[in-house]
Design brief:
The chain is 29% helix and 23% strand. It contains 13 helices and 19 strands. The strands form four sheets. Strands 1, 2, 10, 11, 12, 13 and 19 form a seven-stranded mixed β-sheet that branches. Helix 1 runs parallel beside helix 9 (233-244), helix 1 crosses helix 12 (420-434) and helix 3 (86-94) runs parallel beside helix 13. One of its GO terms (cellular component) is Golgi apparatus. Keywords: Acetylation, Cytoplasm, Golgi apparatus, GTPase activation, Membrane, Phosphoprotein.
């Protein structure tokens, strides 16, 4: 490893693999290393089932009723892709879609007062939904029409609503929408985790609802997509892209030291050898002294022999439990997938509930989902430490951008069930490392030139 690289990437999470792939395409000489023997890092899909038993130190072997172990692929961090979201755009631009197959998630639901309801997002669904009374249905329908037509470049569509000054609370009041409608709009459509958004500029929420609606319009059943064989396929797809353009991958490599000279990274030491580099991108686990813990996520993985009740027996869905429904500060998310996605044995389902930890008894915090999943064959409680780059709390403020050291640290995965915040982090790291904006439009214009040589590989 006595070569010099433009970029060394540590960790094979989705963020790191996307950046590795894009930078390889841009002509950077990339070395990608991971201490693990598998792709995905903390966002890996664990297969076969026997490996999941080992990971959680469960006694014995999986029972025969759970089918063949190799039929299982269990995500450690459950997330879906918004059909019209940023990650899908990245997949299309880079043509990583050649290596993946997706299925539409069959339903999107919201929990209210002990019952599950389909999330209404079209004018027709709003009028038919049992979530609201007859008069509120019409008010919500008018609200959806307003949001769909809202254009900051056309004052006629704004109806006096200033996108940057009017709060979302004021916009709800304008349409006389009650607390229940505010709850499922903010948490099940705009996908906010808390109610902090209510007093922020309404344009952010309008754009989030538009993203949900546009994603739903692509396929009809829900706004979400999921890759066959699990989320672990995503980082592997971008790793393959990087390899096609000259990127070098080394798994199962212990990282002994990040080598610095004059306050700047110059290489990475592994097994007594130093690979030199100009820049370093890594996940927080490789550089713990330069990140601060700001929260914790609790997840429970449930393996079932039935779908979640009151969802129409769909093979996959998302259920959002708004914070106010269970007297919490943060929402609870439930994702369900099944054998239809090649991640479980025939007739089996995987439901994963997650939320931000709020007490000293995280397991108890997810008890509210027990009525949703009921007959559980097997359950693991998984605690994921959440390390984010909250530099304002860091004792070394000059690490904020990473530019002076040329070390760029990714964020870990939050409790949300989509990849929009992950993509925001990818774009932020790209802009700091490359010194230029991550421009989707520019990438669209040049993708034919960039990918023409590898089109048939």
């Amino acid at each position: 490893m006595d070569e010099e690289y433009d970029v060394i990437v540590l960790g094979t999470g989705l963020t790191e693999c996307i950046l590795s792939g894009i930078m390889s395409v841009k002509g950077k000489k990339v070395l990608h290393m991971d201490r693990n023997s598998y792709y995905g890092a903390e966002s890996a899909s664990i297969t076969p089932l026997e490996d999941l038993y080992k990971r959680f130190s469960l006694p014995g072997k999986p029972p025969e009723s759970m089918g063949r172990g190799r039929d299982w692929s269990v995500d450690l961090i459950p997330k879906f892709l918004m059909a019209n979201g940023q990650l899908v755009r990245m997949l299309l631009i880079t043509q990583v879609t050649r290596y993946l197959d997706f299925k539409v998630i069959e339903g999107s639901f919201v929990y209210k007062k002990g019952a599950i309801y389909k999330v209404p997002v079209t004018e027709t669904e709003a009028l038919a939904s049992s979530l609201m009374g007859i008069f509120e249905k019409r008010r919500f329908r008018n609200f959806l029409i307003f949001v769909a037509n809202y254009d900051t470049k056309d004052p006629k569509t704004m109806d006096g609503v200033d996108p940057n000054k009017s709060s979302m609370r004021a916009l709800y009041k304008k349409f006389s929408l009650g607390q229940d409608v505010m709850d499922f709009t903010g948490h099940a459509l705009a996908l906010y985790r808390t109610d902090d958004y209510l007093d922020q500029p309404c344009i952010n929420t309008i754009n989030r609802i538009k993203l949900y609606s546009e994603s739903l319009a692509r396929y009809g059943k829900s706004p979400y997509l999921y890759p066959l064989y699990g989320l672990g396929e995503l980082p592997q797809g971008f790793a393959r892209l990087s390899a096609i353009y000259g990127g070098t991958y080394m798994l199962n490599k212990p990282i002994e030291e990040i080598v610095m000279e004059n306050g700047k990274v110059v290489g990475v030491k592994s097994e007594g050898e130093i690979a030199r580099c100009k820049q370093l991108i890594c996940d927080p686990s490789y550089i713990m002294d330069r990140v601060s813990k700001v929260g914790q996520v609790v997840r429970i993985i449930c393996v079932m022999s039935h779908p979640i009740k009151n969802t129409g027996d769909v093979n996959s869905c998302q259920i959002i439990i708004p914070q106010i429904q269970v007297n919490r500060k943060h929402d609870i998310y439930v994702c369900m997938i099944s054998s239809a996605h090649n991640v479980a044995a025939q007739g089996k389902y995987i439901a994963i509930a997650s939320s931000v930890v709020e007490t000293n008894d995280p397991e108890k915090e997810l008890n509210q989902v027990s009525e949703l999943v009921l007959i559980v064959m097997l359950a693991f409680i998984l605690f994921i430490k959440l390390f984010l780059n909250t530099w304002s709390k860091c004792i070394f403020p000059f690490y904020a951008s990473g530019i002076s050291m040329q070390i760029f640290i990714s964020r870990t995965y939050d409790a949300t069930t989509h990849f929009e915040t992950t993509c925001d982090d990818i774009k932020d790291i790209y802009e700091r490392a490359m010194g230029t904006e991550f421009d989707f439009a520019e990438m669209e214009r040049t993708k034919n030139d960039i990918f023409g040589d590898a089109g048939d590989q």
